[in-house]
Queue: 2 jobs
Job 1
Amino acid sequence: MAIAVAEWRALGMSVRVITANGADIGAARTGVERVLDDIDCACSRFRSDSELSRAHAAGGREVQVSPLLARAIRVALRAAEITDGAVDPTVGGAVKTAGYDVDFAAVEPDGGAITLRMRRVPGWHRVRLLEATNRLTIPAGVEVDLGATAKALAADIAAERAAAVTRDGGVLVSLGGDIAVAGAPPAGGWQIQVAENSEAPITEAGETIAIHSGGVATSSVTVRRWRRGGVEMHHIIDPETGLPARGPWRTVTVVAGTCVDANTAATAAIVRGAKALELLTANSLPARLVRSDGGVERIAGWPSAPL
């Protein structure tokens, strides 16, 4: 079987789909495109007509939501619970205040000074989802941002959907560097090059790992950055302060059973800072952490540095 690759841009990020059987690439791409459209309609905070925006506009009233948005909210609340609040979906207001209030492509890279206040975000416990009926309540004044988990969820769903239409062999889906695989992998597993920027070119010198199942996710403060009044800002918010996280790591890459779990752990590691090594090791999650000065830590079974 010949491997085939489809690449394009959607929702402001690079999308890559790889099939172990090249004949299936067209159907796999179509499946992934549909998932991305569905996720955008359900979860976007930049579209006034998205389900999430309509839930915000309800002003604290309970609303009926689709199974997809309910699943995305459930995933986000679980991420908050298992990380003890380090990955909290109620950071939406803090992200906007920091300057990320439009699609990233439209964010002014170097703007005037802004006033930031240190205060904890509202807290994920305030969001109420009745799972039996998909009824959602977001309190007035609370802004939910699903960016930390919805992209990874989309990768997991897209890989499953794409694998379902392949006839022989598996699928890899990469959404802005969040990677999920499904189905039978090629011999030797899926080869994945680790990079701080998902759009960096693949090179022979790059550090590469192989996975046979699950997902890989990278959280970084080096790519989605902007300046306000000469101060560097980024999109990963520490829920305890409501400000961009200021820890020792500039990039964290994690391998887990799903892309959602990998993304949750990587984001939590950026927020938890020095405690990340202990937490990732305790949960047996292979990870590669890059310090602000470029030093690298490889833990919990992550392969040693290439020679």
Job 2
Amino acid sequence: MALGASRENVAGLGMGRGLAMTVAGLAIGTGGAVVTTRYLATLLYGVTPRDPVILGAAALTLGVVAMAACWVPARRAMRVDPMVALRHE
């Protein structure tokens, strides 16, 4: 913000980078879960190994938590006064 960025730009930068990593992690994790289901089938009770509802619910829950984890620091960064940040450095 001290170099001319708006609050929306700061929030977009923080959220964009965090959510990009989240999407990549969810894709890799979901793919890994689908691949390893035959090994985990003996540990599951009452759920089929490749149940799309369960995989979707888990991905949605992790996505919401990751979005909150990205939003809190982005919101704090938007509230920092540029002069205070420059004086600190």
